[in-house]
Each structure stands twice: as structure tokens, then as C-alpha cells.
Amino acid sequence: MIPGTMAATAIKRHTLPTRLLHWVNALCVFLVLMSGLNIFNADPRLYWGQFGAITDKALLTIGSPGIPGWATLPTWRDLATARHWHFFLAWVLIFSSALYLLISLFGGHVRRDLLPARSEIAPSHIAHDLWNHLRLRFPTGEAARRYNVLQKLSYLGVIFLLAPLILATGLTMSPGFDAACPWLLTLFGGRQSARTLHFGAAMLVALFIVVHLTMVVLAGPLNEIRSMITGRYVLPAAKSE
Amino acid sequence: MLLRSGTAFGGLLLGGCDRLSRSPTFEGILASADSLTYRVQRLLVGNALAREFTPAELSPVFRSNGTDDPDTDEYNALRENGFVDWRLMIGGLVARPLALSLAQLRALPQRTQITRHDCVEGWSAIGKWSGVPLGTVLDLAQPSPAARFIVLYCADELEEGDGGYYESIDLIDAYHPQTLLAYALNDKPLAVGNGAPLRLRVERQLGYKHAKYLMRVEAVADLKVIGRGKGGYWEDRGYAWYAGI
């Protein structure tokens, strides 16, 4: 060992349920997004309100040939198969998310690791973290033991805002479920508004995935991916100035 | 390196999923979620009514989809005569088989409702439907206790030589107060594009269940012996039988 340097500190970063459910959800979210894009291609227009069809004004139209095949599941146009994938995965995600919430809420993961401290949500602190991230300077040493505030806010946003919004707007598109919960139509302003919000929220999840994967690559992919598989995470050493 | 392995992994995943999508066994596994959805919705929804809208919320145009004109010799002959020779045949597992004319159907207690039509493709249109509740007609025909489904046979063939359009629903939907044999859309007799002279409205399910150009209604115990056995034209081509989602 070179005098003056410290041995890398390895910590246990993620608990087994977090790691397991991360990979189940990662696979399912990828596939549910892609099957959703195949379903979207059956009518690649978004409307607002209770009704909306080709004879009505659209908010957004994706011209022919729609979303390219490499981004859809299956890769060819197949509404029936895409719907089977989509609803099967939706059920898996309902069960895996419920399990995750149960474990994380009662096991303390949300309180301990995800909820930011009061000092962390001070605008100056967030601005400081944002500036460091933009300069690709990430927390090192002891500061890397815990999620930073940008991580905390984006994880909380996906788990407690986007996921419930996607579930609720998805259910609002079901004519059967609408009969049971007509208030959903009032809440979202109609089935077609719900469809548009469902699509928008899904695109935000896709954006989250892009940023998330970029951060993994920038922060040291082997260390990051290993920590989500075995739990072992080596605290990044502080860069010498 | 990482990007390349990511792309390779993505390609593998996509290729694998495409292969799975073509496997009938795997399609069966995916479709098992349909029966879960059906059971959960039946439990949660019960006999609740679909939302009804006000005249101000009607779609300016109620578009035609699927077949817009059956154009068979038999249908054209009926159409030329203003459907006076058309009869709705009601049979199968019933005590009293019936043949009802349009005038006889119109003489039965009518229901009018403004509801939303949701196509499996994603679009919705709101229309005002008038017709006789299917339950009223079934009460006249008296299905036997062995009957579990109501099958609706249509005059149109979506693809020539591919068997006629047909659909089926369970008895819960068949007797639901909003399930109509509809003969009018927006206060006008049903246009050919929308299923003249009579179509099904089954408001808590998607558009392909709302069979148009009705010719025959049958009470049956089993769907396996009809068509390709999945309970409907689109069901025989991969779509879910329960289309409440």
C-alpha cells in the first residue's frame, strides 16, 4: 500500500429484497414499456377529453410508420400479442411493487434511504448537488454511503408519483373498471385524457431509465451493477485535486 | 464496450421475446392474465353501470369501424327492402325459439343511453343508443339452466371465406341492464356503417364485442364448438375473450 492512501472501503449497499425486486422490475418495466409502444401504434394519436378518434382533433400524432419496431414488443405490429404481454406484465408489476412497498415501508428502506433530510431539500443544497452532477462530480468516500438528494427525489418520484399515476390512468382506460370507479373519469377528465397521461408518464419513466443508466455508466458501471447483484459496493475514493 | 454489450443484451432480449411471442405455449401463459383480470373485474365491478353522458358530450362523428357494409347478396336483398323481411332468430338452449322482426323489437320496452364506445385500438367515441335490453328478449325465449353464454351471429364476413363475424358474452353481461340490441344511433335508425339493422351494445367491454349486423342469437353451454373455439371472430385471431380492459 502506498503510504498516505487508504484501502478502498467496501460496504453492503442494497438489501436482498431491494436487489431482487430491482431486477424483476427492471425486466418488467422494459417489456411493459415496449409492449405499450406496440399498443400505441394501433392508434398513434393522443387526444384530450372523454372521447377522441380519427375524426376528432388530436393533441399529438405520430406519423406512419409509428414507433419503430426495435422499440416495440413484439417487434412487428401485433396488437393482440402486445396486449397479452402488457397486461401479464402489469399484473406481475402490481404484485412485485406491492411486495416492494410492503418491505420498504415497514422495513425502513423508504424512511432510512429514500426520504431526504430537511437540510437536503434546501434549494441551495439541491442546486449545489445539481451543479456537481452537471460537472460529473459525484459523491465520494463517506458521502457515497447514502443516496444523494437527486437520487432520492428521482426514486421517490418514480415510486410514489409516476407508478401510481400509470396504474390509475391504465385502469381508467378499462371500460369495465370505469363502471366500478367512474370517479377516475372525473379525476383525469376522461378516458382519452387518461390515455394521454398514461403515455406521458410512461415517457417520463423511459427518461428516468436513460438518466439512471447514464449515471450508472458515469459513476463506475462495474461497482454499481455489482452492488445491485451481490450488494457489495466499494465507496469511490476522493479524487486528488 | 459497455454500450456494445448493452446493445447486444437488448438484441438478445428482443429476439428472445419475439420467439416467445410466436410460441403458442407462451401465448397461453401470457393469456392466463386475462382470466385473472376477468375474475377480479367481475368481483370489483359487479353489476355497476357504465358511465352515461349528456347530449352535450356526444362525439361530432360516430365513426364506422371493421365492416362498413356486409355487401352479401342476402344482406343486400334485406337492405333494399328496408329490412322488413329481416328476422332476428333466437335459439339454441332456449325453451321458446323466436323469430323477431324489427317492428316487434321496436314494440318491446326500449332503453336509450349515451355511452362511450372504446375500440381496442385506443380511440373512443360517444354515441346515443336506443334498443331493447338483451335480457328482455332472453326472458321471452327462456334459456335453459344449461346455457352459460350468449352467442351473436352477424351478416358480415370481415375477410371473405374466413367465416362470418360472431361474438359471445357471459350471462352477467347478457342480462346487464345496459346490454342492448340497439336499432338506433343518435336518434336515427342504425346506418349500414354502424351495423344496420341491429347491433349489440355491451357497454363495459371493448368495441369488437359489440357485434354489428345481427342475424342470430343463440344460448349455448360451450364456446369450444363454435368457429375456432375462442368465442368470437377476433378472439379466434388472438384477442382476449373478456374485453373489459
Taking all Cα atoms into account, the compactness measure Rg of chain A is 21 Å
At the fourth level of CATH, the homologous superfamily of chain A is Transmembrane di-heme cytochromes, Chain C
Mind telling me the CATH class of chain A? Mainly Alpha
| Domain count of chain B | 1
Question: Element order, helices and strands of chain A?
Answer: EHEEHHHHHHHHE
The percentage of residues in β strands of chain A lies in under 5%
- Average of pLDDT of chain B: 95
Largest pleated sheet of chain B? 5 strands, mixed
Short characterization:
With 241 residues, chain A is mainly alpha-helical.
Polypeptide structure, described:
The complex is a heterodimer of chains A (241) and B (245). Chain A has nine helices and four strands. Chain A is mainly alpha-helical. Chain A has a single domain (10-234), classed as Up-down Bundle (Fumarate Reductase Cytochrome B subunit), CATH 1.20.950. A two-stranded antiparallel ribbon of chain A has the order 1-4. In chain A, strands 2-3 form a two-stranded antiparallel ribbon. In chain A, helix 5 (149-172) packs antiparallel against helix 8 and helix 8 (191-219) packs across helix 9. The longest helix of chain A is centred in the middle third of the chain and has 29 residues, at 79-107. The mean pLDDT of chain A is 93. By secondary structure, chain B is of the alpha+beta class. Chain B has helices at 2-22, 24-45, 73-80, 102-107, 134-141, 171-174; strands spanning 88-92, 98-100, 111-118, 124-133, 149-154, 166-170, 180-185, 188-189, 199-201, 214-220. The chains are: A mainly alpha (241), B alpha+beta (245). Chains A and B meet through helix 1, helix 2, helix 6 and helix 8 of A and helix 1, helix 2 and strand 4 of B.
